[in-house]
UniProtKB/TrEMBL annotation, chain A:
Signal peptide: none
Subunit structure: Forms a heterodimer with UbiU.
Keyword hit for Transferase: no
Source organism: Thalassobaculum fulvum
Family: Belongs to the peptidase U32 family. UbiV subfamily.
One GO BP: ubiquinone biosynthetic process
Pathway participation: Cofactor biosynthesis; ubiquinone biosynthesis
Entry protein name: Ubiquinone biosynthesis protein UbiV
Binding residues annotated for [4Fe-4S] cluster, in chain numbering: 40, 173, 186, 190
Requisite cofactors: [4Fe-4S] cluster
Role according to the record: Required for O(2)-independent ubiquinone (coenzyme Q) biosynthesis. Together with UbiU, is essential for the C6-hydroxylation reaction in the oxygen-independent ubiquinone biosynthesis pathway.
TrEMBL record, chain B:
Residues annotated for [4Fe-4S] cluster binding in this entry: 169, 176, 193, 232
Cofactor: [4Fe-4S] cluster
GO molecular function: 4 iron, 4 sulfur cluster binding; metal ion binding; peptidase activity
Keywords per UniProt: 4Fe-4S, Hydrolase, Iron, Iron-sulfur, Metal-binding, Protease, Ubiquinone biosynthesis
Name this polypeptide is given: Ubiquinone biosynthesis protein UbiU
Superkingdom of source: Bacteria
Organism: Thalassobaculum fulvum
Length: 295, 325
C-alpha cells in the first residue's frame, strides 16, 4: 500500500507552504505528493513562485509529483490555467473536474476525488481514456471501493484516509460572506484559518469547517482501522490530506500500521496526540453517516 | 424559450401538460433519479401512460436517470435507461459518465441531456460531454452568472437549460456530500438530500430544534415557523457570529432575468419541484407561461404574480447575479 499526500486545501502562507513541502520531501514516507491550488484560483499566484522548487525537491527525493487541477472552473482565466496545466507535461496531472479531461484524453493522467467515480463502468471508461490513478470520492462505501478496485487491477485506486473531508464546493465564498465581504474583494480572509474555519451547530457541536468556497467536515478522516481491509479490496494507495499538524508523523503512523509495526488502535492513539481536539471519523467507508466513527 | 416543468406524479404531469408546459421531466420510483422521495415518481406503466398523454398534447417528456449508479448494481440504472427509451422518452437526463456511455452506445439516436448533477460549468466540460456522448443539451449548474451563461452559449455546440424557479442548491450540484456526512444518504448515491427519515423536531428550553441525524440544523423561537432542516439552509455558529452561514431559507426566482436569459441564448427554462403538489405545478407553470407570453409580446413580466407562488418564502436570483457570490 502506497501513501499519497494530497494537495494543501487551505490558504497557507506561501513560505509555510514551501517549507511544509520541503520537509515532506526530506522526511515523509509518502510515495506521491499532489501539488497545486485546487480550491480557489485567486490563491494560486501567491505560491506559484515556490512551485518549481518544491516539485524539484520532491522529485529529487524520489516522490512522484502530481499537479492537481481546480475543482470548480468557471472563469476564462481558470479554463486557461486548466488547459496549460494539462499541456505542460512535466508532471502527471490529477484532474478534479472534466474541464481538464478534455485536454488529457489519451495521455496518462490521474483522476482526483472531485470527479464523480461511483462505479466500475465509469472507472473503466476513464481508464480507457488514460486514467492511471483514481482517487475515489470520499463518500464511497467499502463495497463500491472493492468493486471498482477489483475491476481495474491495472489502475492505482486510492482512498481518502486522513484529514478533514471535503464535502462541497460552491460559487459562493463563505469566508468572504462571514466577513461581510464580496468574493471579488475578499482580502484573502481565508488565510486566517489555515486549518479551516470551525462551524458549530447551535448546540455547540463541531459540525463543519469552511475553507473559502469549500466546505469540509469538522471531523478528521481516520481509516487506520480499515487500512488492511482496503488493501485486501485492491486499494493501492491511501490519501493523507494536509492539516495543520505534523504530517510527517501522521504518514509515519500510517506506514507503521500498514507495515505491521503497530496495530490500528495504537495508531489511532498516536493520531489523536498528533491532531488533538478534532474527533476522528470513518462513517463513509462503512456506508453510514460520514461524521460517525464505527468501532 | 421552452418551459420545462416538473412532474413528480402522473397527476402533476397532467397538470403541467394542461397548464402549458413545452416539456415535463420525471423519473422512476427508485434510487435512479435525484428526487427519490416517498410517494413520488413513476412506475414503468405510469411512465408509458404519462408519455402517451403528454405526446397527445404535443408535450415532450424528459426522463431523469441522474444519480450515480451504485458499483456492482449498474444494471438497475441500465434498466432505467432501457425502459425510459422503450416508453418513448424524448430525452434522457443523465449525469454518470459510464451511464452516458451506455446510453450513447446502446441507444444511438436517443436524445441525451447532461443533468445539472454532472456539474458541467464551462465550455470545456460541456464540450467534453458533446464530443464523448453526442449530448444535445446541458442543464447548467447554478454557479453561473447570466453573462457567464451568455459566454458559454456562444462557445458550445449544444442547447442549454437553466433553472429559473423553485428550490435552490447553494453548493455545486452533484458535488455535495453534506447530506451523507450527516445521514449516510446523499443526492449522488440515493437521490435524496437531508432525507425526511433522518429529521426530528425537538422542543428544548422553549425553542423548537430541527435536527438532521445527530446535528441541530436550526432552532426556532415561539411564533417562528419551524422550517425543514435542509442542511445548507440551516443556522450555525462560528467565532464570527451565528446565522444562516451558507444561505438563508430562500428559493430561486429568476423571473426578472427572463429577458437577459433569452438574450443570452438559453434554450430552455426549468422549474424545480418534482416533490411539489399538482396544484403548485399548475400555478407555477401557468405563471411562467404568462411570463413567457409577455416576454414574446414585449410586455413587462408580472414578477409579483410569480413571487406569490413562493408561498411567502423569500427568494433570490442566486448565482445568476454575480453579487450573490
Amino acid at each position: 500500500m502506497q501513501l499519497t499526500l494530497g494537495p494543501v486545501l487551505y490558504n497557507w502562507q506561501p513560505d509555510d507552504w514551501r517549507d511544509f513541502h520541503f520537509r515532506i520531501a526530506d522526511e515523509a514516507e509518502v510515495d506521491t505528493v499532489v501539488l497545486g491550488e485546487t480550491v480557489c484560483s485567486k490563491r494560486a499566484p501567491f505560491f506559484a513562485e515556490h512551485l518549481p522548487a518544491v516539485a524539484e525537491r520532491l522529485s529529487a527525493a524520489g516522490k512522484r509529483v502530481l499537479l492537481g487541477s481546480a475543482i470548480l472552473i468557471s472563469l476564462p482565466r481558470e479554463r486557461r490555467q486548466a488547459a496549460e496545466l494539462a499541456e505542460s507535461g512535466a508532471f502527471m496531472v490529477e484532474a478534479n473536474d472534466l474541464t481538464c479531461l478534455r485536454y488529457l484524453q489519451g495521455k496518462p493522467h490521474a483522476v482526483g476525488p472531485f470527479v464523480n467515480v461511483y462505479n466500475e463502468a465509469t472507472a473503466a471508461w476513464l481508464a480507457e481514456r488514460g486514467a492511471r490513478r483514481l482517487s475515489l470520492p470520499p463518500e464511497l462505501p467499502m463495497a463500491s471501493i472493492r468493486t471498482i478496485a477489483g475491476t481495474l487491477p491495472a489502475v492505482t485506486v486510492e482512498v481518502f484516509a486522513f484529514g478533514r473531508v471535503p464535502l462541497a464546493i460552491s460559487a459562493r465564498c463563505y469566508h468572504a460572506r462571514l466577513h461581510g465581504l464580496a468574493k471579488d474583494n475578499c482580502r484573502f480572509v481565508c488565510e486566517n484559518d489555515p486549518d479551516g474555519l470551525p462551524v458549530r451547530t447551535l448546540d455547540g457541536d463541531g459540525f463543519l469547517a469552511v475553507n473559502g468556497v469549500q466546505t469540509l467536515s469538522h471531523t478528521c478522516a481516520d481509516l487506520l482501522g480499515e487500512a488492511v481491509a482496503l488493501a485486501g479490496a485492491g486499494v493501492a494507495a491511501l490519501r493523507l490530506s494536509p492539516q495543520r499538524c505534523d504530517m510527517v508523523a501522521v504518514a509515519r503512523v500510517f506506514r507503521d500500521v500498514l507495515d505491521g509495526r503497530c496495530d490500528a488502535a495504537e495508531g489511532h492513539r498516536a493520531l489523536a496526540r498528533l491532531y488533538p481536539d478534532v474527533p476522528f471519523a470513518n462513517g463513509f467507508v462503512h456506508g453510514t453517516a460520514g461524521a460517525g466513527m464505527v468501532a | 424559450m421552452e418551459l420545462i416543468c416538473p412532474a413528480g406524479t402522473p397527476a402533476a404531469l397532467k397538470a403541467a401538460v394542461a397548464a402549458g408546459a413545452d416539456a415535463v421531466y420525471c423519473g422512476f420510483r427508485d434510487e435512479t433519479n435525484a428526487r427519490n422521495f416517498p410517494g413520488l415518481n413513476f412506475s414503468r406503466d405510469e411512465l408509458r401512460a404519462g408519455i402517451e398523454h403528454a405526446h397527445r398534447g404535443g408535450v415532450r417528456v424528459l426522463v431523469a436517470v441522474n444519480t450515480f449508479p451504485r458499483a456492482g448494481a449498474i444494471e438497475v440504472w441500465h434498466r432505467a435507461v432501457d425502459d425510459a427509451v422503450a416508453a418513448g422518452a424524448d430525452a434522457l437526463i443523465l449525469a454518470d459518465l459510464g451511464l452516458l456511455a451506455y446510453a450513447a452506445n446502446r441507444h444511438p439516436g436517443q436524445r441525451l441531456h447532461v443533468s445539472v448533477q454532472a456539474a458541467a460549468a464551462n465550455p470545456d466540460a460541456i464540450g467534453f460531454y458533446v464530443e464523448a456522448f453526442g449530448v444535445r443539451r446541458v442543464v447548467l449548474p447554478r454557479v453561473l452568472s447570466v453573462p457567464e451563461i451568455a459566454a458559454i452559449v456562444r462557445e458550445i455546440d449544444c442547447e442549454t437549460e437553466v433553472f429559473v424557479f423553485g428550490g435552490l442548491c447553494v453548493m455545486a450540484e452533484g458535488r455535495c456530500s453534506l447530506s451523507s456526512y450527516a445521514t449516510g444518504q446523499s443526492p449522488n448515491m440515493q437521490g435524496v438530500c437531508s432525507p425526511a427519515g433522518h429529521v426530528r423536531y425537538e422542543e428544548r428550553d422553549g425553542r423548537m430544534l430541527s435536527r438532521l441525524g445527530r446535528f441541530t440544523i436550526n432552532a426556532f423561537g415561539p411564533g417562528e415557523a419551524a422550517g425543514y432542516p435542509t442542511l445548507c439552509k440551516g443556522r450555525f455558529a462560528t467565532d464570527l457570529g451565528t446565522g444562516y452561514l451558507f444561505e438563508d431559507p430562500v428559493s430561486l426566482d429568476a423571473a426578472s432575468l427572463l429577458p437577459a436569459l433569452r438574450d443570452a441564448g438559453v434554450t430552455a427554462l426549468k422549474i424545480e419541484g418534482r416533490q411539489r403538489s399538482r396544484a403548485y405545478t399548475e400555478r407555477v407553470v401557468g405563471g411562467f407561461r404568462d411570463a413567457l407570453a409577455a416576454l414574446a409580446a414585449g410586455r413587462e413580466i408580472d414578477t409579483a404574480a410569480l413571487a406569490d407562488l413562493t408561498e411567502g418564502q423569500a427568494t433570490t436570483a442566486g448565482a445568476y447575479r454575480k453579487t450573490w457570490r
